[in-house]
């Protein structure tokens, strides 16, 4: 609603008048007064009327905040799952980093024990 009012006020201005109109609205005092007016309006609308809405605002705000804090970890997790899914979709279990790491360690142990005849020749080129 406030953005609509702001746009309607700007429509009536000429381009030369626009900086003089916007500059005072970006001052620190104007922003502080706007914030205080918003808090006063919230207090009048919800607190004085004994409405349960502020409790809902706190609960849903906490859920949104916790989701946003946890979002980077969730994205890393889903990226890892996508990698695993693509590895399985291509039918190659060797593309999975877990299996390839295990096989490399196994082949290195076999090589260290001198069991070279069991190793694939393409893995250990002489």
Describe the protein.
With 126 residues, the protein is an all-alpha fold. Among the domains are: 10-50, no CATH class; 52-92. The protein is built from five helices and no strands. It has helices spanning 2-11, 18-22, 28-47, 53-89, 97-112. The chain starts with a helix and ends in a 14-residue tail after the last helix.
Overall average pLDDT: 81
Number of helices: 5
N- to C-terminal separation?
75 Å
Beta-strand proportion: under 5%
Radius of gyration: 32 Å
H/E element order: HHHHH
Tertiary shape: elongated
Number of strands: 0
Low-confidence stretches: none
Share of helix, binned:
55-70%
Major sheet description: none
Structural class: mainly alpha
Secondary-structure blueprint of this entry?
Elements: H1 2-11, H2 18-22, H3 28-47, H4 53-89, H5 97-112
Protein name: Fiber protein Fb15
Question: Can you describe this structure in just a few lines?
Answer:
This is Fiber protein Fb15. It is built from five helices and no strands. It has 126 residues and is mainly α.
């Amino acid at each position: 609603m406030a953005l609509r009012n702001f746009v309607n006020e700007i429509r009536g201005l000429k381009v030369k008048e626009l900086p003089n109109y916007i500059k005072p609205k970006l001052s620190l005092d104007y922003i502080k007064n706007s914030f205080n007016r918003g808090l006063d309006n919230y207090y009048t609308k919800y607190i004085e009327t004994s409405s349960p809405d502020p409790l809902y605002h706190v609960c849903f705000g906490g859920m949104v905040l916790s989701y946003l804090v946890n979002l980077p970890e969730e994205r890393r997790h889903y990226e890892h799952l996508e990698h695993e899914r693509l590895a399985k979709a291509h039918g190659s279990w060797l593309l999975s980093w877990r299996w390839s790491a295990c096989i490399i360690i196994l082949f290195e142990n076999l090589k260290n024990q001198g069991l070279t005849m069991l190793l694939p020749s393409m893995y250990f080129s002489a």
